Amino acid sequence: MAWLRITAPPDWTVTPSGRSWCACGHDQSATGRAAVTVLVKIHEQHRTSCPLLSPLEGRAVS
After folding, report:
1. What is the pLDDT of residues 18-53, one digit of tens each?
2. For tag attachment on the chain, is the N or C end more exposed, with fewer CB atoms within 10 Å?
3. Taking the complete model, does pTM exceed 0.90, yes or no?
């Protein structure tokens, strides 16, 4: 339900890119090494807070 796709060509002169999206509507993309690194962290955080991926029982009220 949540996907992370990173395109990182083997040539260091080519800029990597990434996209994180989920069935709940979450959709973000990034270009560049630093931005893709941040996107990975955002994706991990989303997987723990998404109502479609995490059970309701035991979750904090927001």
Report:
1. 999 999 999 999 999 999 999 999 999 999 889 887
2. C
3. no
